[in-house]
Design the sequence.
């Protein structure tokens, strides 16, 4: 189905009831689900409200959709698959969904959701951000995935690369919709505009340079921060007195290594490390930045690129990021690059920062591009997938 089509559920005599499973509901999950709740009765089920990866503050429960937490007392990753299935089954039997959307095919929650659907003859929708290249692929695992995906009736993919991988795994292309990986564009656009309107206040209080490149990520190996810092150091030599600063938001296991690299490269006075920032704090950093960089070695999608584009930034994005084919138009709103090639990234940073670069046009192009990747697209994609799965037929 094409983007934006509204499936016909008139045969149901009511709005479709869709249970949507996530490991943990974060801010961008809420944005997606609120949009979907305008078109369907949404039951959001999170495995737990804490985890060992993301330090998000808990999001207030929304009135737009029903919400259940299976393991409020601890990280669901510690629970057995039988324990997850038992708790999930209790909720799903109570709400009687027309379809269940599950996040991928590997985690306990997804497998439990697929198992429940198979046992109760309820259509399952697999939501996927995976691509062919985001991890090393082994034949036996790919064969196992194909078997698991036979339990699904339709799929909601992040973008084109994610849809192509689902086809590789045996899902019929006409049963795949697109729009899984979106953020609340309005939140970032409005927050960035507010920061620009109050630039002096925010720049002083956040200790931000007059001009800077920005990235935000966990400080872990796959984010490739060591090479990003090397590329930035090389850029500063190219730029001389006109060099921009670099703001690295985030934290993680490799923070000490990042700090050591900054000292070794002689860029301590140019790099700002504000640490991890909560959702409401992020737009100000985007709003005062001049360009966003994501140099990951592997990234299923890269939602921070959505955030940056919604904030009106040109972007430099690793070709290993799953969002690159859909979100980056070469030379229009940014550039892609090989994350292993330090000097190419350095030259692109210099190109973006050059006085003759029309960053205003690139900013406008980012805003135009990301307007097609809003929570409304998640909503239409989810409902298209439900229709493909047989809901309302």
Sequence:
């Amino acid at each position: 189905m094409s983007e934006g089509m509204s499936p016909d559920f008139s045969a149901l005599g009511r709005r479709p009831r869709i249970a949507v499973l996530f490991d943990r509901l974060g801010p961008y999950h809420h944005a997606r689900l609120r949009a979907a709740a305008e078109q369907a009765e949404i039951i959001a089920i999170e495995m737990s409200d804490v985890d060992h990866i993301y330090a998000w503050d808990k999001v207030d429960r929304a009135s737009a959709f029903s919400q259940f937490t299976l393991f409020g007392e601890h990280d669901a990753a510690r629970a057995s698959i039988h324990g997850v299935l038992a708790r999930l089954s209790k909720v799903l039997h109570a709400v009687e969904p027309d379809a269940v959307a599950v996040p991928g095919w590997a985690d306990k929650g997804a497998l439990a959701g697929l198992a429940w659907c198979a046992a109760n003859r309820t259509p399952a929708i697999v939501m996927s951000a995976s691509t062919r290249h985001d991890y090393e692929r082994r034949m036996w695992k790919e064969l196992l995935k194909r078997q698991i995906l036979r339990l699904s009736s339709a799929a909601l993919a992040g973008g084109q690369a994610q849809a192509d991988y689902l086809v590789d795994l045996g899902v019929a292309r006409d049963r795949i919709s697109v729009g899984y990986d979106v953020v609340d564009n309005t939140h970032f656009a409005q927050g960035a505009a507010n920061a620009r309107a109050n630039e002096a206040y925010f720049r002083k209080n956040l200790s931000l340079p007059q001009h800077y490149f920005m990235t935000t990520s966990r400080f872990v190996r796959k984010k490739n921060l060591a090479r990003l810092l090397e590329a930035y150091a090389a850029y500063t030599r190219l730029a001389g007195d006109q060099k921009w600063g670099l703001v690295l938001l985030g934290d993680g296991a490799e923070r000490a290594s990042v700090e050591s690299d900054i000292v070794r490269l002689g860029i301590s006075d140019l790099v700002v490390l504000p640490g991890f920032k909560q959702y409401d704090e992020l737009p100000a950093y985007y709003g005062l930045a001049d360009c966003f960089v994501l140099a990951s070695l592997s990234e299923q999608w890269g939602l921070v690129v959505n955030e940056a584009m919604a904030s009106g930034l040109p972007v430099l994005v690793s070709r290993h990021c799953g969002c690159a084919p859909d979100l980056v138009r070469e030379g229009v709103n940014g550039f892609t690059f090989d994350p292993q090639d330090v000097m190419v990234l350095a030259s692109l940073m210099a190109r973006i920062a050059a006085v003759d670069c029309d960053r205003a046009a690139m900013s406008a192009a980012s805003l135009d591009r990301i307007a097609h990747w809003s929570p409304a697209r998640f909503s239409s994609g989810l409902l298209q997938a439900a229709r493909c799965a047989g809901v309302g037929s």
